[in-house]
Amino acid sequence: MRDSRPARLLRLHFGESDQYRGKPLYEAIVDRCKQLGIAGATVFRGLEGYGETADIHRRRLLKRDQPVVVNIVDTPESIERLLPELEAMMSTGMIAASDVQAIRLQKPADPRD
Amino acid sequence: MLQKGAAKKVTIYVNEDTQHHIGPLYEAILTFLLHKGVSGATATRAMAGFGAHHVVHTAKVELLAEHLPVRIEFIESAEKVDSLLPTLYDMVTDGVIEVQDTQVVKAANKDRKPEPAVPHEEKRGTARLMRIYMGESDQWEGQPLYEAIVQRFRLMDIAGATVYRGILGYGVKGHTHKSGRLPFSRDLPIMISVVDSEEKLNKAIEEIESMMQDALIVLSDVEMIRLIRPTPGVAGA
Does ipTM exceed 0.85? Predict the structure, then answer.
């Protein structure tokens, strides 16, 4: 079954060591997305990078601060609803948004279920 | 160098002891093909067979082993085969020449000499970016799904695909992907990103649709800048 519709993709860029209320920011964001019923969020860790603060994010011997990217895909309305929440949680970093076409692939439900 | 795609396969059956000038005919044919720049030819000596003379040649009986059939095979482009056929027709005084349409799926050459450094070519244009989200533990016929998909794309000549492993996520399968305490029990999120033309990506989606249980595909328009090293002899690569 194929279901294709216009959607919006958010990419949040920040550091792995960024915290929000005592836990990693990326974890806090994924939890918040879940609470708000957002379709999906995925966190990727980059190897090296730099951003707003011009500090190079890389893996050091004791401290891990590699760049982190969170991808979030949902309907334009849901993304609009989510954006202010994210802005409040992120102190530094970058949010990029783009219009996309989303195709959800799902195997038809097993008739035995 | 043989290219991927439609080609012709030529099979020539001769007798091992048929002569051409001073040497065996099959050797003369191989030498001729080599001089004409044919990318490869193989001569195989048969175990047994019979031809137009209706005498069974077999290696089992010493007396009959002298006339064993030899099969020469080579694959080339249609134009090249057309240019070679008249000479081969003349050379094969006793035997059969057969030509059939074939498809070259792969033509790899491991020890090709490194090409001289040429400035790379820049190609710009609009393209489409496809991101496919799935779980790391998703399987397809006993193989990780992401590996199977990348292999399929390679076969389809899709410009390129990159697999990313996430560190945390939820979505398509409804549960949180998180790395477990044991390294082999994890089900982290996987994303494959692919850039190519819209038509090719549509074909790619059709191809992989049946392989995936639950997945999300996200498509967007992108501006593409490709840096290509021109391969000698490949027109319009």
Answer: no
